[in-house]
Amino acid sequence: MINHKIVKIKRSKKYSDRFIIYFENKSVLRVSEDAFVLNPMKVGDLLSDSDIKELDDKMNLHEAKEAAYRLLSYRMRSIAELSKRLIEKGFNDVEIEFVVNHLIELNYLNDEDFGKAFILEKVKSKKIGPVALRFELVQHKLPSELSNMLIEKIYDEFPINKLISFHLDKRKIIKNTILNKKDQNRLNNFLKRKGFYWDSIVSVYSEWGIL
């Protein structure tokens, strides 16, 4: 078994909660402050390859957790989205699975809570329809059953005909006034871009008497 002699220990200038361990063979090991407290080291100590690997693995997990916390501090994220971002940052599957499970246990990651908040913001603020909502939601890779349930619930709370009527009011459409072809096409395209099904659009047009 090869042992590696520590020749220098210093606190990281960039990250105050980390120590940098220098070995006689010019290799370097980064260690979190917590790991250093649990495994005190001093110049002259010898560490085996397995000791170094264990400390390095712990450091990688520590960094993965810190990266996840930073990402969640900006906004809520789905499990799949957070996992993807951690992959992009170079963490491996084992590290990501550990961190994700840890955050789920703490309820910092919860797809249902994320989905509810995401959908509410999109529908309440932007008044979008189910086509647009589903398109935006699919990017966060929520389980399909959960997505369907949340979409159904949000349009129970914010009925589609009322959302379409909101857009008609906002565009100053007058009830029982037939639009010319140009204005009708422009309105049709706008509501389609907002993510409403054509059947729903026609139904509201009929209620308003603008067909």
Describe this protein's structure.
- The chain is of the alpha+beta class and 211 residues long.
- It folds into three domains: 3-105, Winged helix-like DNA-binding domain superfamily/Winged helix DNA-binding domain (Arc Repressor Mutant, subunit A), CATH 1.10.10; 112-157; 160-208.
- The chain is built from ten helices and four strands, in the order βββαβααααααααα.
- The chain has helices at 33-38, 49-74, 79-88, 93-105, 111-126, 130-138, 144-157, 160-170, 181-193, 198-208, and strands at residues 3-11, 18-23, 28-32, 46-48.
- Strands 3-2-1-4 form a four-stranded antiparallel sheet.
- A hairpin with a 4-residue loop joins strand 2 and strand 3.
- Helix 3 (79-88) runs antiparallel to helix 4 and helix 8 (160-170) crosses helix 10.
- The longest helix has 26 residues, at 49-74.
- It starts with a strand and ends with a helix.
- 19% of the residues are buried.
Order of helices and strands: EEEHEHHHHHHHHH
- What is Rg? 28 Å
**Number of beta strands:** 4
- CATH superfamily caption of the largest domain: Winged helix-like DNA-binding domain superfamily/Winged helix DNA-binding domain
Classify the helix fraction into a percent range: 55-70%
Number of helices: 10
| Alpha-beta content class | alpha+beta
Q: How many angstroms separate the termini?
A: 85 Å
Mean pLDDT: 94
Q: What is the total domain count? A: 3
Query: Could you please say which CATH topology of the largest domain applies here?
Result: Arc Repressor Mutant, subunit A
Low-confidence stretches: none
Specify the CATH architecture of the largest domain: Orthogonal Bundle
Strand content: 5-15%
